[in-house]
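Hey L., structure's done. Input below.
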Amino acid sequence: MEPCRSLALLAASLALVSALVALSTDFWFMAIGPSSSAHSGLWPKRGGESVADFIHVTQTFSILAALCGLGSVGLLVLSCIPSLSAPGRGPLVSSITAFVAAVFMVVAMAVYTGHRWSQPRHPQIQSCFSWSFYLGWVSALLWFSAGSLSLVAHFRAPPSGYEEL
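Output:
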């Protein structure tokens, strides 16, 4: 297996894990006040309160990114097994799905960042983004890397022909 495909598989796997951890944890935003601190994520725990629209958009696009990322990882794994993949097309389709996952995650992160950034500040409360939020951005960068590496693997692959059968 060529190094670009291996690195693409590693980057896509790390991106998928980062996105899933970011989605499932509650440390997207922190607020630190004079006597206490609080943190929030994408899945509010209060039962009767309505969830803001920007949270729904972030949830939806993050889940779509994770699903596309899972497809990209699956296609890369299948492209490593010659008998299960279409000759020469696995890395190309994996590259496309990795780029789509990256775009979905960038949209999700941009919506969340834009809304949180525009909220009014309170003078006694220090608010900041937390580690789950940063994992979301890392997953987008890793999916862009995986898509690029997979594209390079596709163009470096020998052309399929009758001599490979």
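The first strand starts at residue 29 and ends at 32. The helical segments are 3-24, 53-79, 90-118, 131-156.

-- N.
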